[in-house]
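Consortium newsletter contribution from the modelling node. Members have asked for a concrete example of what our holo predictions look like. Here is one, prepared for the 2-phosphoglycolic acid complex that several groups have been discussing at recent meetings.
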Amino acid sequence: MNKERKLIVAGNWKMNKTVAEALDLVRGLKIELANIKEVDVVVCPPYTALSEVSKEVLDSNLKLGAQNMSENGVGAYTGEIAATMLKEFSVRYVILGHSERRQYQKESSELISKKALAVHAASLKPIVCVGETLAERESGRMQEVLQSQVQGSLAGLTKEQMCETIVAYEPVWAIGTGKTASTAQAQEAHAFIRGLLVGMFDDSVARRVRIQYGGSVKAANARELLGQPDVDGALVGGAALEVRSFADIIKNSI
Ligand code: PGA
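And here is the predicted structure:
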């Protein structure tokens, strides 16, 4: 696939996998994806498996990501994880503002922008998630919601930082539901988000930012979705939990 930007496919393992299961998965992926150079492949295990998985990815083309990070440095923040702790395990990417965290932990775009700045301050790369619910889409508010989330969550980033930020468009109604956005719906939302980045930063920044699609991505729909001009990769949940399904998504996107 000839793309303007290098594709980036990340597996968000969410709250799944013991250490032993995580090792099985990452070892399988290393074998299956050993020759892949065309796509940046990222695995995002739960915190408890980062240490062991980081040893496995050292001598591979897989990169490591975390699923969240504190906006604060080390200190009295019970249950939180700081950037310095992630860096011990060679983490390169951090997912921020996933819709599950926006919903269950009530994370706001304002908080996510603080986290994004902390991620950059540690020279890591944030994957900032945005996306509308079904009710928002059906009431014609998709653009308004995306605008508010994009502008709020990326507020305060410099142009240089924005170029090193990945945006993930994840329509909430497509996450874990088996309902995927059509290629036209995905392209429309991605182009809209890129347009917002032109307004917030400039044209050349917007052209460099990679925008992933997320929401029931699987091997069968990856090629079509990632073939859209403004879709630069995928953030994969359920299908990232098995070697075969995740490896096939990546192979089908090349
Ligand atoms: P899904 O999840 O692939 O299971 O729909 C995607 C995500 O939540 O990142």
